[in-house]
Design a protein that fits this description.
The chain is an alpha/beta fold and 273 residues long. Helix content is 48%, strand content 19%. It has eleven helices and seven strands. Strands 3-2-1-4-5-7-6 form a seven-stranded mixed β-sheet, with helices on both faces. Helix 7 runs parallel beside helix 8.
Length: 273
């Protein structure tokens, strides 16, 4: 009995030690998530930047009203595509897209690594989870989602992480479902040379042709690229006018043309995970 009692006591001690270590790891994980995720420290993230990130977003990305006005342009795509599976928005941030979808009567859920944004979104009744986008998508039932969206997310990712995200999105989408990505447009030279780097967590600009290619390599079909948010109206040289006369306007378009672009790709019908 003495040996048994000693063994039970030792087992209890080991259980308590394990629980303490688990709590310590969970606390560290929560701290990393609150600061934007541990892997972001090398890309501009850290506790000090995390503390000002809400204000930073307002200053450089724009107000929720401004962002919502831009996102409204995607609602026709949603009404065309979304059925019972709903929409998953990865990197949902302040939740402008989720709020628009709720107002349109569309089922939607989002995931973000910023604890403050998630808490604020939940307080507004939005379906938001704190976590990692890739892990969230991989945990979804296969072939279950109508649309996966990511607004100004992919420019934060390394190429391998981006490809993994695309693969996970395709697995979660139903056949015929749509992946929608929006990112800064480096064909706008002001964006490529300056504005892109206003965000220290950006990695590098993604040319539209590259994003289109990467999306297609991960099994998406009917891939579409949409230039968005120009500061001037698009201008195309015409054959009946001297191109040199248009040169100032062409330069202006290159400098101040579409600041963002979207890529839409579709999971091919009949394809399952």
């Amino acid at each position: 009995m003495t040996l048994l009692s000693h063994a039970v006591e030792e087992l209890g001690r080991l259980v308590r030690d394990t629980q303490d270590r688990l709590q310590s790891v969970e606390a560290e994980l929560r701290s990393l998530q609150a600061s934007g995720g541990g892997s972001h420290h090398v890309d501009g993230w850290g506790p000090r930047f995390a503390a000002i990130y809400a204000d930073f977003t307002e200053h450089f990305r724009g107000s929720t009203a401004e962002v919502s006005a831009k996102l409204e342009g995607y609602l026709p795509d949603v009404h065309r595509l979304v059925r019972q599976g709903g929409v998953v928005d990865v990197g949902c941030g302040r939740g402008e897209w989720l709020a628009l979808l709720r107002g349109a009567g569309v089922a939607a859920q989002g995931v973000d690594a910023n604890a403050a944004f998630v808490a604020a979104g939940r307080a507004r009744g939005l379906n938001m989870e704190l976590g990692d986008a890739l892990g969230y998508l991989e945990a979804l039932p296969p072939d279950s989602i109508d649309m996966v969206t990511a607004f100004h997310v992919i420019e934060h990712l390394a190429t391998e992480d981006l490809l993994a995200l695309l693969e996970a999105a395709r697995g979660a989408l139903r056949p015929g479902g749509c992946l929608l990505l929006e990112t800064p447009n480096p064909t706008n030279l002001v964006m490529a040379a300056c504005d892109f780097y206003n965000d220290p967590t950006h990695r590098s600009p993604l040319p539209p042709a590259l994003t289109e290619y990467l999306v297609s390599t991960q099994g998406f079909g009917n891939v579409e690229v949409r230039p968005l948010h120009p500061k001037t109206s698009p201008l195309v040289p015409t054959g009946d006018q001297d191109t040199r006369a248009q040169l100032p306007e062409l330069v202006a378009q290159t400098l101040f043309g579409p600041q963002d672009y979207a890529v839409l790709g579709y999971k091919l019908p009949g394809e399952t995970r």
